[in-house]
């Protein structure tokens, strides 16, 4: 039962992290198009916070992927990996803990 609760917490954290990656993508697109003011301190703090959460995970993916010019597909690869590799593994562990 403890393992089941732990897996539920992990799934919730994974869903939250997916949301953070999505917000990071939208924020960086708005920032690069000049819609968000780079001189605004609040905008800078939000961008810095998102960078610190997402970039450590995206950098290894970027090193592995081939360069596609200015197109960065590493957030897409991260989201697909979380959705189709990590979450099913955690769900499988949850089911295995219930059948014991």
Give the low-pLDDT segments: none
How many extended strands?
Answer: 0
Order of helices and strands: HHH
Number of alpha- plus pi-helical segments: 3
Overall pLDDT level: 93
Judging from the principal axes of the Cα atoms, what is the shape? elongated
Radius of gyration: 17 Å
Structural class: mainly alpha
Sheet-strand content, in percent, reads under 5%
Spatial separation of the terminal alpha carbons: 10 Å
Description:
The chain has 100 residues and is mainly α. Helix content is 81%, strand content 0%. The protein is built from three helices and no strands. It has helices spanning 2-32, 41-64, 74-99. The longest helix is centred in the N-terminal third of the chain and has 31 residues, at 2-32. The N and C termini lie close together (10 Å). The model has no long low-confidence stretch (mean pLDDT 93).
List keywords for this structure.
mainly alpha, 100 residues
In short:
With 100 residues, the protein is an all-alpha fold.
């Amino acid at each position: 039962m403890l393992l089941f609760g732990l897996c539920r917490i992990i799934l919730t954290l994974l869903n939250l992290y997916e949301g953070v990656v999505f917000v990071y993508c939208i924020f960086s697109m708005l920032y690069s198009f000049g819609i968000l003011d780079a001189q605004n301190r609040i905008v800078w703090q939000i961008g810095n916070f998102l960078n610190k959460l997402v970039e450590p995970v995206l950098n290894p993916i970027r090193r592995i992927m081939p360069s596609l010019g200015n197109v960065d597909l590493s957030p897409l690869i991260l989201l697909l990996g979380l959705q189709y590799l990590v979450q099913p593994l955690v769900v499988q562990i949850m089911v295995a803990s219930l059948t014991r």
